[in-house]
Amino acid sequence: MEPIERAATVRYAAAADLPDALRGADALFVYDFLSRALPSAWPAADTLGWVHIASAGVDPVMFPELRDSDVVLTNSRGVFDAAIAEYVLGLVIAFAKDFAGSLRLQQQRTWRHRETERVAGTSALVVGTGPIGRAVARLLRAVGMSVAGAGRRARRDDPDFGTVVSSAELTDHVADVDVVVAVAPLTEQTKGMFDARAFAAMKPGSRFVNVGRGELMVTDDLVSALRSGHLSAAALDVFEQEPLPPESPLWTMENVLISAHMSGDVVGWRDALVEVFADNFARWCEGRPLRNVVDKRLGYVPSMS
Predict the structure, then answer these.
(1) Which residues are identified as catalytic?
(2) Is residue 23 helix, strand or coil?
(3) Which residues share a beta bridge with 125?
(4) Which of 82, 166, 258, 283: disulfide with 154, CB 3.0–4.6 Å?
(5) Cis-peptide, bond into residue 249, ω within 30° of zero
(6) Where is the D-isomer specific 2-hydroxyacid dehydrogenase catalytic domain positioned along the sequence (predicted)?
């Protein structure tokens, strides 16, 4: 933040202090990307022209007053793409090779020979066709998987997905794939898209990976699909409620891998987030176009691809 501190008066504020810090401020850097403090502090934003959030998802700050205002919203698109793609690939391989089962047997000091699966030749549907979804698709293709995408607009001959189907018709396209990966942004259209109907439409024995937002899925419906055996496994990095409550049945299900909203958080990620803001701050001061401008009607940065 040193270059920014040399160029501007910077106020650092916790959630409780945000209203006072916002008065007279021209820009806001939401570094705590999970904070929900901005909506209640919004009336104090008397001179605000730009909000930047340190995440790819903008749902924590996508409330009606900001959406309907002239305030520009930017995000940190691009920081997490490769890291999350590697994480998803690791999960797909971990399921195929049953690493969790090997660890349990090791802890029991039990020698048990098993057969595992090939990843090559299996199929995946990546739900969310932004930069993160594209990075995921490229890595899964690299290990021999057949990959399609699901996005807002159906199309063919996509450079990363080949075929992109409409996410509004999700249940028509999940029946023939081995792995469904959720990386879509959280919007009114995507909230709860993975519900009992969607899980029931998935291929028996298939697997579900969510590295997008917890609210994309209905947790109780996922638990039911896993308990019934219709889904063979799930890997979850995000949840409807975070931290995941201790009483959640997901903790004790052997066919579930849980991580603490960390799929993109590799060494150096915090510095990278500040660097994205610093670059945009320099652009803002110089009157140049900002990067990663969010279409507030859509809830994400639009792409031509």
Answers:
(1) 213, 242, 261
(2) coil
(3) 148, 180
(4) 166
(5) no
(6) 16-294
Question: 180 pairs with which residues across the strands?
Answer: 125, 208
Sign of CA dihedral 89, 91, 93, 96: negative
Residues pairing with 155 in the sheet: 164
User: How crowded is residue 139: how many other Cβ atoms within 10 Å of its Cβ?
Assistant: 20
Cα dihedral angle (182, 77, 186, 161), rounded to 10 degrees?
Answer: -40
Region 262-282: mean pLDDT is: 97
Q: CA of 96: how far to CAs of 77, 139, 165, in Å?
A: 30, 16, 26
Which residues neighbour 37 within 8 Å (Cβ) at sequence distance 6 or greater? 15, 16, 18
- From the list 284, 283, 273, 292, the residue with the least C-alpha distance to 1 is 273
Angular region, 297: left φ>0, alpha ψ -120 to 50, beta rest: alpha
Architecture per CATH, domain 81-258, reads as 3-Layer(aba) Sandwich (3.40)
What is the CATH topology of the domain spanning 2-78+267-286?
A: Rossmann fold (3.40.50)
